[in-house]
């Protein structure tokens, strides 16, 4: 459906260019609330300090992150904050330690061993995959199928599933906050795992293939080297292209070096470094469909733009770029997704002389995203 793809792309471009009232500064009322604060970059936020600090326009000169930090007991604030900020840090979340040791173990296995962990069906959301042109490799846990993990490692499976299960419950609790006044997010999302997955990611200069795979890739390869994803010597650096996540919410925790950047609907960029004791929560592609203006669809041909209001949570556009001299970076991401057949959007369309209600399921939206030109973003 080319017309639908054009509409999706137009919505993306329109949302990037339009000026919105929500700004990226902490409001006066938030600054007076000790449960929303900006810690020093080196602060242990589990130490119990809750002193508010003013926000700056990007990463401050002191190294303090400017995205808000919320205590889990105050997660009712998250829906409002996600309309103003592209992401939030969550403190006192109760999750077990992030299993970075397992991520390192798996992603540094010999190539021959990692290749045995690839999905036979060539899935990119199950088992091991890599993108050598961008210096990253990853491994996905899909709870619906048998784990494609390291052989004879019971601790790996135990710790991986534990972190995944508790992270999903946490994200479902965040979703529940959107439904305190209205049923915005389907109850199925809050009660079921759906098509949720977890990813171990490694960014490393060791992963980058410095040579083009074939002559046809030369132009693309050179464009990467000449972009901002190249260092001062013109060498490719570990990175991922700017994108949004195809889910409802994403939970991320990472090691240094950071390299993660997010931006809001006004195009303002925020550095999102790892902060000890927190996890980062970002919105995914489905949030605009659940939080658009009542009775309006973001995909309406004539009213799609109007469906996006100040209370609409847009997906978090983000990218990762790791300087070659900084070493390797590991991250763990948990993606909260609904079941494939869940209807995420309804709109009235004309079919000849008749008007009918057309429904869009999650799987269809996922298929359409593959055909969006430019950045892999929806409504960002």
Automatic annotation (TrEMBL):
Biased composition, class Polar residues, residue ranges: 14-26
Name recorded for this polypeptide: Fe2OG dioxygenase domain-containing protein
UniProt similarity note: Belongs to the iron/ascorbate-dependent oxidoreductase family.
Segments for region (Disordered): 14-63
UniProt keyword annotations, A-Z: Iron, Metal-binding, Oxidoreductase
Record InterPro entries: IPNS-like_FE2OG_OXY, IPNS-like_sf, Iron_ascorbate_oxido_reductase, Oxoglu/Fe-dep_dioxygenase_dom
Domain of life: Eukaryota
Listed Low complexity bias regions: 47-63
Every Fe2OG dioxygenase domain range: 220-338
Statement: the UniProt record of this protein carries the keyword Metal-binding: yes
PANTHER family: 2-OXOGLUTARATE (2OG) AND FE(II)-DEPENDENT OXYGENASE SUPERFAMILY PROTEIN-RELATED
Organism: Arthrobotrys conoides
GO MF annotations in UniProt: metal ion binding; oxidoreductase activity
